Amino acid sequence: MTSSRLITAALSSLHPRSHGGRDRHFCIGVADIDPLTSKLDAAGVPYTRSASGRPAIFFRDPDANVIECVEGADPWR
């Protein structure tokens, strides 16, 4: 079993852009999106769900880079 640690910091107001896949970002595949959203909620990290309805979320790291996490991503398709 693997574990992860979520490290958060306040985001700068210098990056007010919304996000949702329209800007440059990288994507991480996860087995289940729900535990991740629970951790983000508990840490007060804002995120948006994919507008397409697929199981994916977008949030920013402390340097305001966009990170996408998608459930069940197949990197070999």
From TrEMBL:
Domain of life of the organism encoding this protein: Eukaryota
PANTHER family (UniProt xref): GLYOXALASE FAMILY PROTEIN, VOC DOMAIN-CONTAINING PROTEIN
Protein name per its UniProtKB record: VOC domain-containing protein
The species this protein was found in: Monoraphidium neglectum
